[in-house]
Design a protein that fits this description.
2 domains, Rossmann fold, six-stranded mixed β-sheet, alpha/beta, binds flavin mononucleotide
């Protein structure tokens, strides 16, 4: 049973989750840029493939490549996880997960969310500016609760709310492939 974790990360949170996950399931790890250079046959060996991307304006960054590949991987166990600055349990997380996949994709791909954080020091200058604009747009939402406003204020500076425990459901799902294989 072979598992591959492919990730894209700008400031390191998604990379760290991908490393934790690869370590936990004994899988291989590839940056998306390297995965894109591989031929189709490279992926034949893998029973499970998981994509990790960071949340960008309520979408999962660069997931299109993975979604385009998915139909040709119908015999594999597929999962994806999104790492964002929003804490787990917030409604934004639900809507991000809801909108990320079509019903058809959802039948094939199991989607997870891991809370990450914000690292302004590692962001490129244009991204830092985009982020400030995004936070201020959130802050000005008319229906934002006081609790959410506090969260948006916090998003204006760096923080880390990542935790290795958030990989457990993903690891369990990916390991399911192993159990099925040994049962067959
Ligand atoms: C331009 C931009 C947009 C973002 N949009 C979201 C978002 O919609 N939801 C969210 O939870 N986090 C959002 N974030 C926060 C990142 O997803 C978060 O910092 C994540 O941990 C970054 O992962 P990385 O370190 O792997 O790049 C955004 C960050 C940037 C820079």
């Amino acid at each position: 049973m072979k598992t591959l974790i492919i990730y894209t990360s700008q400031t390191g949170f998604t990379k760290r989750y991908a490393e934790w996950l690869a370590d936990r399931v004994g899988g291989d790890l590839l940056d998306l840029k390297d995965a894109q250079k591989k031929s189709d046959s490279f992926f034949d060996d893998y029973d499970a493939i998981c994509y990790g991307g960071w949340a960008m304006a309520e979408k999962i960054s660069k997931i299109k490549w993975f979604l385009d590949k998915a139909p040709s991987w119908e015999n594999k166990r597929l999962a994806a996880f999104c790492v964002g600055g929003t804490p787990n349990g917030e409604p934004q997380v639900d809507s991000l997960l809801q909108n990320a996949l079509t019903d058809q994709q959802r039948e094939q791909i199991k989607l997870f969310y891991c809370q990450g954080g914000m690292n302004y020091e590692k962001m490129s200058a244009p991204t830092r500016i985009a982020m400030k604009m995004f936070v201020s747009a959130l802050r000005n939402k008319k229906d934002a609760t006081e609790e959410q406003k506090k969260m948006f204020d916090r998003m204006a500076s760096s923080y880390d709310i990542s935790d290795v425990k958030y990989i457990e459901p993903i690891a369990a799902y990916l390991r399911g492939a192993e159990e099925e294989e040994s049962a067959s």
